[in-house]
Amino acid sequence: MSASLAPECNEVKERYDSCFLKWYKFLRGNATTDECEPLFKQYKACLSVALKEKGIDAMLDEARESNRENDADHLRPSYSKGDEKDAMLGGH
User: Fold this and answer.
1) 3-state secondary structure of 1
2) In terms of pLDDT, which residue wins out, 31 or 13?
3) Residue 24 and residue 19: Cα distance in Å, rounded?
4) Neighbouring residues of 35: CB distance < 8 A, sequence distance ≥ 6
5) How far is CA 38 from the centre of its chain?
6) pLDDT by residue (tens digit) across 5-28?
7) Number of domain units in the chain
8) H or E element at residue 69
9) DSSP state of 8
10) Which residues are CB-contacts of 80 (< 8 A; sequence separation ≥ 6)?
11) Does 1 fall in a domain?
12) Which of 4, 84, 85, 90 is packed most tightly, with the most Cβ within 10 A?
């Protein structure tokens, strides 16, 4: 498994990665909760501190803000051409 961006987060990242590889049973419906969520939260908290220390958090926030409109376009429900024409003409 790959190392974390922040070396101080390597241990929790490795534990999360190992859990995630086993997590597919959750996706297949063999579990009712995400067993890895606590580890993910620990890793995210550790990484957030490192990103802030390096000034990367501000760059990420800026990138997210500048792409908000683009994201909205890509996350909008897609329609077939016929549906789009009906919508433009006020049809159902």
Assistant:
1) coil
2) 13
3) 9
4) 19, 22, 23, 26
5) 16
6) 899 999 999 999 999 888 776 677
7) 1
8) helix 68-75
9) G
10) none
11) no
12) 4
Give the global pTM: 0.61
Task: Give the range of the structural domain holding residue 58, as residue numbers without chain letter.
Answer: 7-88
Neighbour-count burial of 51, counting CB atoms closer than 10 A to its CB (0-12 exposed, 13-18 middle, 19+ buried): middle
3-class DSSP state for residue 28?
Answer: coil
Place of tokens 């490795």: 14
For every residue of 34-62, which 3-state class applies, written as one string?
A: CCCHHHHHHHHHHHHHHHHHCCHHHHHHH
Two tokens at 61? 């926030």
Cα three-residue angle 42-71-92, rounded to 5 degrees: 125
Compute the distance between CA of residue 38 and CA of residue 56 in angstroms, rounded to an integer.
Answer: 24
Nearest residue to 92 (alpha-carbon basis) of 81, 45, 84: 84
The two three-digit tokens of residue 83, written as one number = 């549906």
Indicate the angle between helix axes 10-22 and 37-53, nearest 10 degrees: 150
In a domain, 2, yes or no: no
Q: Which amino acid is at 25?
A: K
